[in-house]
Specification:
This protein has 214 residues and is α+β, with helices and mostly antiparallel strands. 42% of the residues lie in helices and 20% in strands. The chain has 2 domains: 120 residues, PH-domain like (Roll); 58 residues. Helix 1 crosses helix 3, helix 2 packs antiparallel against helix 3 and helix 5 runs antiparallel to helix 6.
């Protein structure tokens, strides 16, 4: 039986075309949607803000009327709940439509809910990497590109490193086993860049090791 997947136009899940001879898939994964909701869509911060706003509104209602009409409070609470549900739903859709792939030659990022984009990042064009760990072993892996290789910040969102707007860094967001994937990425990068100039490779290797240290 022929295997099928959601994106029928792909040669294989997460890949826009068949892999060339000598290239193979080493790892594939996607963001944890709950972690993505917290760290990329900031659901927890929004919930805290809404809770404070509801508390202030409740205090004002109690202080300004003898017979309290709670209808405005419930309307506001319903709207806040709808906003949180929207953020959480968008995080779920984003995680579901995302697939990260490591081959022995490159990193492939298939992202996008409505408009699907695929970015191919050869290891030889990756200048450095950084791991940002979260609770439960999850983590982000940001990839620093050379200055001449630039991807638009808006095209990457939310799969980009925060605050790096001028030179966006593609980021594998909220990976369930961030440290293990980082170690695998380092090993693959080292194997793929054996032929690079020694001085440049040593500098990059140091940057990769330090950045991916959990």
């Amino acid at each position: 039986m022929k295997a099928t997947h959601e994106h029928e136009w792909e040669a294989a899940p997460g890949l826009p075309s068949a892999l060339p001879a000598g290239e193979r898939i080493v790892w594939q994964g996607a963001p944890d949607w709950r972690s993505l909701a917290v760290h990329a869509f900031h659901v927890r911060k929004a919930a805290l803000y809404f809770a404070v706003m509801l508390g202030v509104q409740a205090l004002n209602l109690v202080d300004t009327a003898s017979a309290v009409d709670w209808k405005p409070w419930w309307v506001a609470a319903s709207l806040y709940a709808l906003a949180l549900a929207f953020l959480a739903g968008t995080a779920w859709l984003s995680a579901r439509s995302t697939l990260y792939t490591l081959t022995n030659k490159r990193v492939v990022m298939r992202i996008g809910i409505v408009l699907t984009l695929t970015f191919n990042l050869p290891f030889k064009r990756i200048a450095g990497a950084a791991l940002k760990p979260y609770a439960g072993g999850r983590g982000d892996i940001a990839l620093a590109l050379y200055p001449e290789d630039r991807i638009g910040w808006a095209h990457l969102w939310p799969h980009q490193r925060a605050w790096y707007v001028t030179h966006p860094q593609p980021t594998l967001r909220c990976l369930p086993e961030g440290a293990q994937v980082g170690a695998q990425l380092l090993a693959l990068w080292q194997a793929a860049t054996v032929g690079e100039p020694i001085r440049r490779r040593e500098t990059q290797a140091t940057s990769m090791r330090e950045g991916l240290a959990a």
